[in-house]
Amino acid sequence: MSESQDIKPRPEDDLVAPTPQNTPLNTHVPTSRPAQKPNVEDVVEGDEDEGEDVTSMNPASLLASNPALLALAQHKLGALVGRPSGYIQSLPPAVRRRIDGLKGLQVEHAKIESEFQLAILEVEKKFLAKYQPLYDRRQEIISGKAEPTDSEVTEGQNADSDDEDEEDEGAQVTELTDEGEEKLTGIPEFWLTAMKNAVPLAETITDADEEALKKLTDIRLSYLDGQAGFRLHFTFAPNDFFEDTELTKTYYYQDQVGYGGDFVYDKAIGHEIKWKEDKDLTKKVEIKKQRNKTTGRTRVVRKVVPTDSFFNFFKPPQPPTREELQEEDVDEEELEELDGRLEMDYQLGEDFKEKIIPRAVDYFTGKALRYEEDFEDDFEDDDDFDEDDDDEE
């Protein structure tokens, strides 16, 4: 993280499909999830009156006229990705030996990449210690334990002076006179407002969650000792929903870095919340009436079922074990759904770590939203791209 520059949202890492020697570069094959079996439709022949022979049609035209057949072809081509073409095996032994030597150099390169990432992690830990006094001061002002100094206010006003037309899209601030009947302490609902201005985090917050999140007083970050990973700390004031004063979420990385040289997400461990009676926001009670066909009497059945809630964040999905992946009856659709949930859970953790905690006031005021919207506009501007009607057809 850079202290002197605004951190703009980072785009999702582009998935680049490996291209073996026998796979065309322009083959559009989905590689981010298991391929789904297409529903192949019958090939519809032309009318006899037109005298069109399907067997004489151009293969490209045949695929374009039948999306199901095109999907099947893509699926078959997808099976070729990553498979050897036989080119390497056809080379002379001396050349293959040199290639093995290059692979050995690549192994050494991977070791240096791992050292690099560990060094970066140590630098992040070092600078987190420098940020802590600022986070302590921020928490004092938010909670009302202290007021900002004149110099702090001046610095904040100067930071916004470059954008006179700025309109805060976050909190709605009401000016109160000295004679006002209501006196606010600190900044009410600071973290709730900041979280609701962060996408996709806001989509996980329900109306019922808001009452509990109004008691959220601080969010902090810490790094793990002796292992790559980080922990999120959510501090709450006494509330009507749970007994805990702090909820934690820990993200672990794998011991070895990934192919791209970055840490690879391993798993997340949440917090078992001590809910007060009938206050669990992650569950709801469904009440149904059942009538006895013989006696005609009715009874009320109460059933507790899971429901959407931000606090499901503390019950993260767990990746499948190697044994589970090797089972013959594994459900690919369930694995695909689990993969999406794991990706979302990790993304939320990274958003807290990289965005919300270091730039909480920008999310509270809505300033951070302008940077995210500007980034999206850069990729959604149709004028920046040339359309190819043939490819689209």
Report on the architecture of this protein.
InterPro entries: NAP-like_sf, NAP_family. The protein has 393 residues and is α+β, with helices and mostly antiparallel strands. The two termini are 44 Å apart. It folds into three domains: 42 residues, no CATH class; 73 residues; 206 residues, 2-Layer Sandwich (Arylsulfatase, C-terminal domain). The strands form two sheets. It has a four-stranded antiparallel β-sheet. It is extended, with a radius of gyration of 28 Å.
Number of domains: 3
Q: In CATH's first tier, which class of the largest domain applies? A: Alpha Beta
Question: CATH topology of the largest domain, which one?
Answer: Arylsulfatase, C-terminal domain
- SSE topology string: HHHHHHEEEEEEHHHHH
Mean pLDDT: 78
CATH architecture of the largest domain: 2-Layer Sandwich
Number of beta strands: 6
Spatial order of the strands forming the largest sheet: 1-2-3-4
Show unreliable segments.
1-52, 172-177, 389-393
Shape: extended
Q: Any idea what the CATH superfamily of the largest domain is called? A: Nucleosome assembly protein
Rg over CA atoms, rounded to whole Å, is 28 Å
How is the main sheet built?
4 strands, antiparallel
Q: Give the end-to-end Cα distance, rounded to a whole number of Å.
A: 44 Å
Summing up helix and strand content along with how strands pair, one would put the structural category as alpha+beta
Number of helices: 11
Helix content, binned percent: 25-40%
Organism: Cutaneotrichosporon oleaginosum
Pfam family, one: NAP
Family: Belongs to the nucleosome assembly protein (NAP) family.
Protein name: NAP-domain-containing protein
